[in-house]
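Contributing new records

If you add data, match the layout below exactly. Sequence lines come first and carry their own label; structure lines follow with theirs. Keep one chain per record. Anything else will be rejected by the validation script.
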Amino acid sequence: MKKLSRKMENELRRQDEEAYLQYYYSLRKHFEVSKVNNLSLKARKRIHLILLSVIRLRNRINGYHHTVIRDDREKTDRPKIFAITHICKADIEVVSEALKEHYYLLSGDFENIHGTLDGLFLALNGVIYFNENVKEDRHSVKERMIQVLKCGGNIMYFPEGTWNLSPNLPVLPFYRGIIDVALGSDAVIIPVAIEQYEKQFITKIGSNFDVACYGEDRKAEALSELRNRMAELKWEIWESIPMVERATIADNYYEKFLEDKIGKWTLTLEDFKRGIYKNAENMSPDEVFEPIRKLANNYMEI
């Protein structure tokens, strides 16, 4: 199927969601059977060394600079899941330069990436796409990741699922799949926090987190511990930044922050908010009572 323009894709999605999904999966199937998507892990690791040089050059051209304030990774022969805090479009490139190790990226952004130069780089390095809005796809992607990890590959995983645009929350609530994947593949999780200050990025890499000791019965506890560790890493980055006087912060600082983050991106603030995992911590009263309202309305209709 011929790829539509971004404007036509958005129009198709608005008018007919079912037709859009057929179009989406047609494009993705074409990608998944392509030669570039079926390169061997050995070939990808060689290509990764070349791509790292390209990434470094692109980061410098874009004016990005990064500092790794600590790297507590421990050597292991087990596959790794790099769990990264998600802050902006550039964090993949910046974290790649900091980690250096090869990975397959887990991405729910096929629509915006496929067919671009960035999409080609990711395809060469290794990318696993899934549709965040389709339940069956969210479940099947776990098995695809487990297969990659069991074959010796690593995964770059953003457990927040979307950019953290909160004015004060170190990390957003995590999606639960990362623990299932780690348990199913005997992988260790490497927590990584990254923060952006205009063109300067600061990264802190935590120590290996082994979820095997939690087992199937304590997955919620394992997820909570991972989130705590990543929040601690983010907090330590914040503490490393020199303090500023509150009076020097502009009244519209947060609005300017949002504009800089998403102003040139195809998604809106509402799109990012929809990507946040909903739990008791961050659900509004309207969201909590919406199912009850629907039941009440159905009852009244009867």
